[in-house]
User: What shape does this take?
Amino acid sequence: MPVKIPDNLPAVRTLAEENIFTITEMRSKRQDIRPLRIAILNLMPNKEATETQLLRLIGNTPLQVEVTLLHTASYIGTNTEKTHLDSFYKTFDEAKNELFDGFIITGAPVEKMDFAEVSYWNELVDIISWADKNVFSTLYICWAAQAGLFHHYGVGKRELPIKMFGVFPHKVLDKTNPLLRGFDDTFYIPVSRHTTIDERSVLCSQDLTILARSDESGIGLIVSSDGRRVFATGHSEYDAYTLDGEYRRDAAKGLPIEVPKHYYLNDDPTEPPLVTWRSHAHLLFANWLNYFVYQETPYDLNELVTNVENYHGMFI
Assistant: This one.
C-alpha cells in the first residue's frame, strides 16, 4: 500500500526515484475506496487446485477483493465435479454484462494444438475482446499468455524439442516498471510447457515491453505500454509440489519426461522440492493488484466503457 506523505515533502522526489510508491495528502483526500472486482477464467483441468493457488496470492494483500470465477461454456472438462461448477462458477454469458477491475486467465493443457483447433477458441477470443472494454487490466498466464499475444499482436508460438520443465532464474530487465517493484535482480519462476513464443515478434512490437527473461527458458514477463495487458509465461502461482505431481504423473504413464530443473534438492527426485519462487510470486500479484489495478481503475466502473479507449496509463 502507498505511504501517505505531505504534498511538498522533499522526500517525495527521492522516494519516487527509488520506486517507493507514495500518495500525497491531497490525492488521499479525494480517493474513494471500494472492493476490487476480479474475475478469474479458470481453464485448468483441476479447477479447485488452481482456485486455491490464485486466491492464496490474491488474498495476501491489504486490498479487499471480490472474486468471480468463470469457466467456458463451449467446453466443460471432466476433472472438476459439475456440482462445484454449478455452485461457484459462472459462464461468460452469465457475466458478460458485468464490469471488472482485473481479470486473470489461467493456463490450459492445450499448448501443442494450434489455437484454432482448441474447442473453446472462438469463445476465448470473444472473452479476450470483451476484456479490453469491460476490464481494466488483464493478467494472462502461461498458455493464456500465448493466446493473448497471438490474438492481440499476432505473436506465434513453436513447439520445443523437449518440454521446458523446472524452476528457472529470470533477470529483471526493467527495474523501473511498477510490476517489478521490490524484486531482486534475479528471481525464479516455475515453468511447465511444450511450446514457446516467438521472441522476435515480441521485440518488434512497439506496444510490448519484456520485463523479465531467462537464459534457459526465455521470456518470463511482458507488459503492454498502458499496463492493461500483462503476460506471464510461467506459473508463479504453483504450489511446492505441483511440478512434482506433474513429473510423477507423466513418469508413471511412461511419457518422455525429464526431472524438472533447479527444483529438487541436488536435482534428485527422491529429495524434497526447494521452493525458491514463493516470495516473488506474492510480490508479483500484489504489484499487479496495487499498481496496475487498484491505483488506476476508476472508482465507478461504468467509466470503463466510456474512458478506456482514451486511457494512456502511467507506464508510457
Q: What stands out?
A: The chain has a mean pLDDT of 89. The domain at 32-160+175-181+195-239+280-302 is CATH 3.40.50.880 (Rossmann fold).
